[in-house]
């Protein structure tokens, strides 16, 4: 929290008839933050009018989190912030969330009165973000008219230098995908740790060679309903120093249809190979995606959790060609989850049972498998094989069973303890 210095003489003069005034700034900040958390921001505004010291400390709390639900509110705040740019350093979290219809009466390129920022640099609703020098969390859900202006923020090395978490979603006409190319430099941000992209598209070109950045601090990447080429993604994933969590989700029938995305899970596993030494969790929730070949993931030495839709995304569907490779599970894998029912491919079901039987050899740290209710005969086979090989089976949606098998800690376990990460976005 940024607190500006103040002369000791002025501070003592203000505190003569003020019991709160004897408290140090750090303790007063805690008091003001508690007031804000209790929903008494109006009272805190009143306190801020008492003297300069309270005004300064209250600003650090009142402006810590800012939500813009209309562009008019955003513009009004921009005018205030342009006159008092120091106030921008108190802001830690910003959310921009308003629909396209809200922009119809506004001039996006208009100069903000009193602003020292040249109007040609950013559009009128996004350039104010650059003043927020201590911003740590940015959540964008605005019309695509602001795509270029906000994207320009990520081009410079000094704007938003403290940013740790970012969510980007631009509302396009006809619900189309927005072009990630305009915001591509968000991947070059040196300090960003969490990035969520919703309904973005990206082709196979990746970064231009001349603009390729150094390693970044990105730890979590979530691609929600995006149309991302696997080769382009592979290029982007060479940048993080140690990515730990990857989530990619699609609807069962994406609208509009995916043009850049591959239809094979194996292609995206290949794209993740540059992060194989650091990834701890991989979630690919794409019901329409298949796999043309068996997954080989022995290089993913740190992976503990793998979530897929179908068992045949792991094994590849039945084919007339002989299988020359068996599944290469990550050596440290602890949890394997399938979002959809097992047994839709008979050959794959046999391969799954064989994999469980060889668990002690191919994945000796494998502790849990999570599935959903489906064909009772298939589940019975899987349940028995899991019990024989000391593998816990969680069946989402099943009723608790009280037979002796469950009392021994094996067999079917019901509940919602293993929800999809992609579904929570």
UniProtKB/TrEMBL annotation:
Q: Which SUPFAM superfamilies match?
A: F-box domain (SSF81383), RNI-like (SSF52047)
Give every F-box domain span: 22-68
Q: Where is this region: Disordered?
A: 400-425
The residues the entry assigns to the signal sequence are none
**Domain of life from the UniProt record:** Eukaryota
Q: Which Gene3D superfamilies match?
A: 1.20.1280.50, Ribonuclease Inhibitor
What InterPro entries does this protein's entry cite? F-box-like_dom_sf (IPR036047), F-box_dom (IPR001810), LRR_dom_sf (IPR032675)
- Biased composition, class Acidic residues, residue ranges: 400-409
Q: What is this protein called?
A: F-box domain-containing protein
According to its UniProt entry, this protein's organism is Paraphaeosphaeria sporulosa
């Amino acid at each position: 929290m940024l607190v500006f210095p103040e002369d000791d003489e002025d501070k003592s003069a203000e505190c003569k008839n003020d019991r709160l005034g004897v408290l140090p700034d750090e303790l007063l900040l805690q008091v003001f933050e508690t007031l804000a958390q209790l929903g008494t921001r109006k009272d805190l505004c009143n306190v801020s009018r008492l003297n300069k010291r309270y005004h300064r400390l209250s600003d650090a709390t009142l402006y810590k989190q800012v939500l813009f639900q209309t562009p008019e509110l955003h513009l009004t705040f921009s005018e205030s912030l342009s006159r008092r740019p120091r106030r921008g350093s108190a802001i830690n979290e910003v959310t921009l969330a308003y629909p396209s219809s809200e922009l119809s009466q506004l001039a996006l390129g208009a100069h903000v009165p009193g602003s020292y920022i040249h109007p040609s640099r950013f559009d009128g609703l996004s350039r104010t973000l650059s003043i927020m020098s201590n911003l740590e969390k940015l959540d964008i859900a605005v019309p695509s008219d602001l795509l270029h202006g906000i994207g320009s923020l990520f081009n410079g090395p000094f704007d938003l230098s403290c940013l740790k978490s970012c969510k980007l979603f631009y509302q396009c006409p006809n619900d189309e995908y927005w072009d990630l190319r305009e915001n591509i430099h968000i991947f070059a941000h040196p300090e960003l740790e969490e990035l969520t992209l919703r309904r973005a598209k990206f082709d196979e070109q990746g970064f231009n060679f001349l603009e390729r950045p150094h390693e970044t601090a990105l730890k979590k990447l979530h691609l929600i309903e995006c149309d991302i080429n696997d080769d382009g993604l592979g290029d982007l994933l060479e940048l993080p120093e140690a990515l730990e969590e990857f989530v990619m989700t699609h609807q069962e029938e994406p609208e509009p249809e995916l043009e850049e995305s591959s239809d094979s899970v194996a292609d995206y596993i290949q794209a993740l190979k540059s992060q194989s030494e650091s990834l701890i969790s991989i979630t690919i929730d794409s019901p329409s995606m298949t796999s043309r070949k068996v997954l080989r993931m022995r290089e993913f030495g740190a992976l503990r959790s793998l979530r897929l839709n179908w068992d045949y995304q792991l094994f590849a569907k039945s084919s007339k060609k002989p299988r020359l490779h068996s599944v290469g599970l990550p050596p440290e894998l602890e949890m394997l989850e399938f979002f959809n029912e097992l047994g839709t491919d008979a050959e794959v079901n046999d391969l799954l049972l064989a994999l469980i039987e060889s668990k002690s050899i191919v994945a000796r740290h494998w502790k849990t498998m999570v599935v959903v209710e489906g064909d009772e005969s298939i589940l019975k086979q899987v349940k028995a094989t899991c019990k024989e090989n000391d593998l816990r089976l969680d069946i989402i949606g099943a009723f608790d069973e009280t037979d002796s098998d469950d009392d021994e800690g094996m067999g079917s376990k019901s509940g919602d303890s293993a929800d999809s990460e992609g579904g929570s976005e």
